[in-house]
Each structure stands twice: as C-alpha cells, then as structure tokens.
Design goal:
about 160 residues; about 50% strand; mainly beta; five-stranded antiparallel β-sheet
C-alpha cells in the first residue's frame, strides 16, 4: 500500500507492509521486517546563511548597480559630516581603487555643493568632509568613473 503525504513543498512517500513471511517456513524474516518497518527519515533542509548582495558591509546605505556595490556612510562630526563611500565589486566586495568619485550634495536649505572624494588606501574607500551643520535631509548624488564606465548612485541622510 502506497501512501503519499504532502508537507509544504515536500512530498513524502511511504510503503506500508502488513506482513512478510519467508518462503516455506511460515516465520517472518527478521531482516525484511526490520527494513520494512523502519520509517524513512527525512533529512531536514537547512538553509545556508548567505549575505544578501544588498546588505550593508559598513553600516551605510547600499545600492547594487550591475556588478557594483555602492555604499555611503554619513557620519556627523562637529562642523559637518564625514562621508565614506565604498565602491566595490558586488559579489566579492573587493574595493575598486582606481575610480574618480564626486559627490553632488543638496543641503536642506537647497544649497548645492560638489566634493571630490579621494581614495583612502588604508580604509579601502573614498572619503571627504562636508562642512555643514544645518539640520535636515541631505540629498547626495555620487558620480563615479571606473576607467570610462559611469556608475552613479543617489543617497540621502539626515543630520539632526
């Protein structure tokens, strides 16, 4: 007798046997009974933990752009905001040091500022200081040129 039980997206099939006897003896063959009465065990499917591509690696805002991982971290400091920009290959998060990076910032008052972000080799990221103490939302467009390829991202942050 075949029975089928559907559990979510997994179907379990079992074979139920009522009795088995060995030929000519009338005695059950213990090997057959043991194997027939064991219930099949299901190996649990345990999801492997993976890091989503869009998960922040530095605690900032992330944009995945094709094969690139763009991450902006805005750290308020006295007199302004320190901007750290991580430009990495998406799958490996390997830093890309040979790019030209510019930030176009719109302050809460509507003022437009442009900052060049030089590469910081020890930190493996691009960085600049934005002198600004006005509270509110700042809109940032990061413009990158990676050996002629343009990769841009838009971010926002609040200064309180």
């Amino acid at each position: 007798m075949w029975r089928s039980l559907k559990l979510g997206s997994i179907t379990v099939v079992s074979l139920g046997l009522i009795s088995l006897t060995a030929c000519g003896t009338g005695e059950p063959d213990s090997n057959v009974l043991e194997s027939a009465t064991e219930t099949p065990t299901e190996t649990p499917v345990v999801p492997t933990e993976t890091t989503p591509k869009d998960r922040p690696t530095q605690g900032g805002q992330v944009i995945e752009m094709g094969p690139y991982h763009l991450e902006l971290v805005a750290l308020p400091e006295p007199g302004g905001v320190h901007l750290d920009f991580y430009l990495q290959r998406g799958d490996t998060h390997e830093a890309i040091p040979a790019a030209t990076v510019t930030a176009q910032v719109e302050t809460p008052t509507g003022e437009q500022r442009t900052l060049e972000l030089p590469y910081d080799e020890p930190g493996k990221h691009y960085a600049a200081f934005l002198p600004a103490e006005v509270s509110g939302e700042y809109k940032v467009a990061i413009l990158t040129d990676i050996q002629g390829e343009k990769v841009n991202g838009r971010f926002t942050f609040n200064r309180e």
